[in-house]
């Protein structure tokens, strides 16, 4: 499904590309072309109940935790596969360096009833195998995996951040945080989280005392890293996606989205996928393209810059 402005997009891009260089030039550069257009929007062909979180894997497949249906599904190249089902409110998703997927089970937020599963696909086996990593957590709503294999868990109803060490031992409450709704780790191993109740984004140093990077968000529900490793958050109740400026302790709205948008994940090319809890959808948002250069074999980067006065889709 494409938005209406997409019909005029091809001609706009063609005009911009034509202005980049001249035929016969021995060498020329390909600066990014910014087009005054809303992004290309496409719904993934999935039947979802209450999608809570989305993960874009290293192989490009899109994995979704469907809280309402109690399952984790993967979608790639038009094909959909159920990786695990009969789960108790699957929420957080993460992938490790070996391609294993981790999912947190909220389990009604009941004390010591939540858990974390590892899903792995062994050579020669068709179905994904499950391994329990933890089973005594309280309302785990999100997880992040470090390069070392350590798993960080946001325990929403316990108001704390906990960790599962590579040896399998559980370290409860490495940091206290009111209603942590999401957690993410960057390429340098720095840990970040959101607090739904206080509307803050925090960093969590090794000392365990959260440092506020910005506040003023309205029920932040997810936190992600874009292709430049910048922090991006979903502000659930304000129907917006924002980029965090930790230096200025502020944020900037980069997209207005439909009510119910709750999770986000970025692809390597800078485009992203969002899931909507209320509309029961997963949507790919394409605002960066690579077009063939008419003067050489190179590619011209094109960015579609939407008007934020209206929802992007």
Question: Rg to the nearest angstrom?
Answer: 20 Å
**What share of the residues does DSSP label as strand, in percent?**
over 45%
Biggest sheet strand order reads 2-25-24-23
Please write the CATH class name. Answer: Mainly Beta
Shape: globular
Number of helices: 1
Q: pLDDT average, as an integer?
A: 89
Which class best fits the helix and strand makeup? mainly beta
Brief descriptors of the model:
313 residues; mainly beta; Neuraminidase; 4-stranded antiparallel β-sheet; 27 strands
Question: Care to describe what's here?
Answer:
The protein has 313 residues and is mostly beta strands. It has a single domain (40-286), classed as TolB, C-terminal domain (Neuraminidase, 6 Propeller), CATH 2.120.10.30. Helix content is 3%, strand content 48%. A 4-stranded antiparallel β-sheet has the order 2-25-24-23, with no helix packed on it. Strands 3-4-5-6 form a 4-stranded antiparallel β-sheet, with no helix packed on it. Strand 19 and strand 20 (231-235) form a beta hairpin.
In a nutshell, what does this entry contain?
The protein is 3% helix and 48% strand.
